[in-house]
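Bug #77: duplicate submission created two jobs. Keeping one. Sequence:
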Amino acid sequence: MNGLTQQRNTKPLRCIAYIVAVFLVCGCTARQAYESLQQHARSECIGLPLSQQDDCLSQASLSFDEYQRLRHEAISSK
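Kept job's structure:
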């Protein structure tokens, strides 16, 4: 990875970490935080090349309920 690609990849992560911190301080529910992060992820998808947008948008469209179900399955399978 070159420096520009690496910098581009860490910028969204820092932004997401900041958003999560704000939600934790504000006392928002997990559902509100998840939905806000999903909206941010969908916004980030728009900046990707067209060839990557569909995959990105499908990953960013997982509902909170489905996320919770998958999360509980993963935890219980350990």
